[in-house]
């Protein structure tokens, strides 16, 4: 579990740090070349299943490795240790995990931002002479973030099990390996434990979402 949690945690950080800012930028630059390029890349990444993307990344690393760098394409290293050899093992799987989710959050952020940017109160804020940064971050983003919170809650719920394909392709000794082995061996207790863990994670993610709703919008009352 520590390995799966580490992979999912850093992959989720990469997903959100890349996806949400790029979604905001593409919404602000809608119908420009910036929007076209970013959304084209996001569409390609979104259309590729994570296990196909992982194989492509491995092939790319092997092609680059012809120079003799010796970059590993499987394994993980020591959990929660960040020496240079550990980083070499972890960097590619984490970026692959983040890229697979980045496309979804970039597109979702762009869609919700564009919807809010067309509202009357945004035009009023601009007509009053507010700085564009204030319009974007204080008025637009705060109202556009509600759908993102819902998606983030589900992402937190599937934090550990969301890396199954990545772990299998990169031969990472996490929860995915024992779960896949349990399915092939009909080891029902392990399968049940994984299922219960997913259920607990989803409930916990929904709870976090409900709490964040109240912080993002005071009009939403949480009990």
UniProtKB/TrEMBL annotation:
Membrane topology recorded in Swiss-Prot or TrEMBL: Multi-pass membrane protein
One GO CC term, this protein: plasma membrane
Taxonomy, superkingdom: Bacteria
Record has Cell membrane as a keyword: yes
One GO MF term: dipeptide transmembrane transporter activity
InterPro entries: MetI-like, MetI-like_sf
SUPFAM superfamilies the UniProt entry points to: MetI-like
Keywords for the protein's UniProt record, in alphabetical order: Cell membrane, Membrane, Transmembrane, Transmembrane helix, Transport
Annotated TM spans: 7-28, 40-64, 145-170, 190-213
Subcellular localization(s) per the UniProt record: Cell membrane
ABC transmembrane type-1 domain location: 1-209
PANTHER family: DIPEPTIDE TRANSPORT SYSTEM PERMEASE PROTEIN DPPB-RELATED
Family: Belongs to the binding-protein-dependent transport system permease family.
Name of the protein: ABC transmembrane type-1 domain-containing protein
Species of provenance: Dictyobacter kobayashii
Native organism taxonomy: Bacteria, Bacillati, Chloroflexota, Ktedonobacteria, Ktedonobacterales
